[in-house]
Amino acid sequence: MANLYAVPTKALNQAVRRNTDRFPPDFVFQLRPREIAALRSQIVTSKRGGRRTLPAAFTEHGAIMAATVLNSPKAVTMSLYVVRAFIQMREQIAANDEVLKRLAEIDRTLLKHDKSLQVIWRELQPLLQPPPTPPKPQIGFHR
What we know:
This protein is mainly alpha-helical. It has a domain at 9-89. Helix content is 61%, strand content 4%. The chain contains four helices and two strands. A two-stranded antiparallel sheet has the order 1-2. Helix 3 (60-69) packs across helix 4. It is rod-shaped, with a radius of gyration of 36 Å. The termini are far apart.
Protein backbone atom coordinates (compact mmCIF):
# COMPACT_ATOMS: atom_id res chain seq x y z
CA MET A 1 0.00 0.00 0.00
CA ALA A 2 2.86 2.35 0.80
CA ASN A 3 4.34 1.76 -2.66
CA LEU A 4 0.97 2.49 -4.25
CA TYR A 5 0.83 5.92 -2.62
CA ALA A 6 4.60 6.58 -2.94
CA VAL A 7 5.23 6.97 0.78
CA PRO A 8 7.56 5.05 3.10
CA THR A 9 5.92 2.12 4.92
CA LYS A 10 6.77 3.82 8.19
CA ALA A 11 4.74 6.90 7.17
CA LEU A 12 1.74 4.76 6.21
CA ASN A 13 1.84 2.82 9.49
CA GLN A 14 2.19 6.08 11.41
CA ALA A 15 -0.79 7.63 9.61
CA VAL A 16 -2.92 4.57 10.45
CA ARG A 17 -1.86 4.66 14.12
CA ARG A 18 -2.56 8.40 14.38
CA ASN A 19 -6.01 8.02 12.81
CA THR A 20 -7.33 4.85 14.42
CA ASP A 21 -10.89 6.20 14.40
CA ARG A 22 -10.71 6.31 10.57
CA PHE A 23 -9.55 2.70 10.26
CA PRO A 24 -12.08 0.34 11.87
CA PRO A 25 -11.47 -3.44 11.63
CA ASP A 26 -13.41 -3.72 8.38
CA PHE A 27 -11.00 -1.20 6.77
CA VAL A 28 -7.64 -2.52 8.02
CA PHE A 29 -6.63 -5.61 9.98
CA GLN A 30 -3.51 -7.49 11.03
CA LEU A 31 -2.61 -10.59 9.05
CA ARG A 32 -2.26 -13.82 10.98
CA PRO A 33 1.02 -15.79 10.89
CA ARG A 34 -0.65 -18.52 8.81
CA GLU A 35 -1.73 -15.92 6.20
CA ILE A 36 1.77 -14.45 6.08
CA ALA A 37 3.23 -17.92 5.51
CA ALA A 38 0.80 -18.45 2.64
CA LEU A 39 1.81 -15.12 1.09
CA ARG A 40 5.51 -15.94 1.40
CA SER A 41 5.01 -19.20 -0.44
CA GLN A 42 3.16 -17.34 -3.21
CA ILE A 43 5.53 -14.42 -3.71
CA VAL A 44 8.77 -16.25 -2.79
CA THR A 45 10.28 -13.82 -0.31
CA SER A 46 12.93 -14.49 2.26
CA LYS A 47 11.81 -15.71 5.67
CA ARG A 48 14.67 -13.77 7.28
CA GLY A 49 12.89 -10.41 7.18
CA GLY A 50 13.27 -7.94 9.99
CA ARG A 51 9.54 -7.53 10.82
CA ARG A 52 8.70 -7.36 14.51
CA THR A 53 4.94 -6.90 14.01
CA LEU A 54 2.42 -8.57 11.78
CA PRO A 55 1.72 -6.62 8.57
CA ALA A 56 -1.59 -4.84 8.06
CA ALA A 57 -3.99 -5.63 5.24
CA PHE A 58 -6.30 -2.96 3.84
CA THR A 59 -9.74 -3.54 2.39
CA GLU A 60 -10.80 -1.31 -0.53
CA HIS A 61 -12.39 1.09 1.97
CA GLY A 62 -9.20 1.18 4.00
CA ALA A 63 -7.17 1.90 0.89
CA ILE A 64 -9.40 4.87 0.11
CA MET A 65 -9.19 6.10 3.69
CA ALA A 66 -5.40 5.79 3.58
CA ALA A 67 -5.39 8.02 0.51
CA THR A 68 -7.28 10.67 2.47
CA VAL A 69 -4.89 10.70 5.45
CA LEU A 70 -1.64 10.64 3.48
CA ASN A 71 -0.13 13.76 1.92
CA SER A 72 1.83 12.35 -1.00
CA PRO A 73 0.90 13.64 -4.46
CA LYS A 74 -0.13 10.13 -5.51
CA ALA A 75 -2.40 9.74 -2.48
CA VAL A 76 -4.05 13.10 -3.18
CA THR A 77 -4.53 12.14 -6.83
CA MET A 78 -6.02 8.80 -5.79
CA SER A 79 -8.48 10.35 -3.33
CA LEU A 80 -9.60 12.84 -6.00
CA TYR A 81 -10.02 9.96 -8.43
CA VAL A 82 -12.18 8.07 -5.92
CA VAL A 83 -14.36 11.12 -5.23
CA ARG A 84 -14.86 11.65 -8.96
CA ALA A 85 -15.71 7.99 -9.41
CA PHE A 86 -18.41 8.21 -6.74
CA ILE A 87 -19.83 11.36 -8.35
CA GLN A 88 -19.94 9.60 -11.70
CA MET A 89 -21.61 6.55 -10.13
CA ARG A 90 -24.24 8.77 -8.52
CA GLU A 91 -24.94 10.44 -11.87
CA GLN A 92 -25.27 7.06 -13.56
CA ILE A 93 -27.65 5.84 -10.86
CA ALA A 94 -29.76 8.98 -11.34
CA ALA A 95 -29.77 8.38 -15.10
CA ASN A 96 -30.75 4.76 -14.49
CA ASP A 97 -33.66 5.94 -12.34
CA GLU A 98 -34.87 8.08 -15.23
CA VAL A 99 -34.60 5.11 -17.59
CA LEU A 100 -36.44 2.85 -15.15
CA LYS A 101 -39.27 5.38 -14.78
CA ARG A 102 -39.58 5.65 -18.56
CA LEU A 103 -39.58 1.86 -18.91
CA ALA A 104 -42.36 1.62 -16.32
CA GLU A 105 -44.41 4.13 -18.33
CA ILE A 106 -43.83 2.15 -21.51
CA ASP A 107 -44.80 -1.05 -19.72
CA ARG A 108 -48.09 0.47 -18.55
CA THR A 109 -48.81 1.73 -22.06
CA LEU A 110 -48.05 -1.68 -23.53
CA LEU A 111 -50.42 -3.34 -21.07
CA LYS A 112 -53.19 -0.99 -22.19
CA HIS A 113 -52.39 -1.74 -25.82
CA ASP A 114 -52.28 -5.45 -25.04
CA LYS A 115 -55.83 -5.35 -23.68
CA SER A 116 -57.03 -3.38 -26.70
CA LEU A 117 -55.34 -5.83 -29.06
CA GLN A 118 -57.00 -8.76 -27.31
CA VAL A 119 -60.43 -7.16 -27.82
CA ILE A 120 -59.66 -6.51 -31.49
CA TRP A 121 -58.44 -10.09 -31.93
CA ARG A 122 -61.64 -11.52 -30.44
CA GLU A 123 -63.75 -9.32 -32.72
CA LEU A 124 -61.73 -10.29 -35.80
CA GLN A 125 -61.78 -14.04 -35.18
CA PRO A 126 -65.27 -14.58 -36.65
CA LEU A 127 -64.33 -12.50 -39.69
CA LEU A 128 -61.21 -14.55 -40.29
CA GLN A 129 -63.11 -17.84 -40.45
CA PRO A 130 -63.74 -19.12 -43.98
CA PRO A 131 -67.30 -18.56 -45.13
CA PRO A 132 -69.54 -21.58 -44.75
CA THR A 133 -69.76 -23.63 -47.92
CA PRO A 134 -73.10 -23.10 -49.62
CA PRO A 135 -75.24 -26.24 -49.96
CA LYS A 136 -74.96 -27.96 -53.33
CA PRO A 137 -77.90 -27.37 -55.55
CA GLN A 138 -79.90 -30.50 -56.02
CA ILE A 139 -80.97 -31.70 -59.38
CA GLY A 140 -84.64 -32.09 -60.10
CA PHE A 141 -87.82 -30.58 -58.63
CA HIS A 142 -88.04 -30.13 -54.94
CA ARG A 143 -90.56 -28.69 -52.68
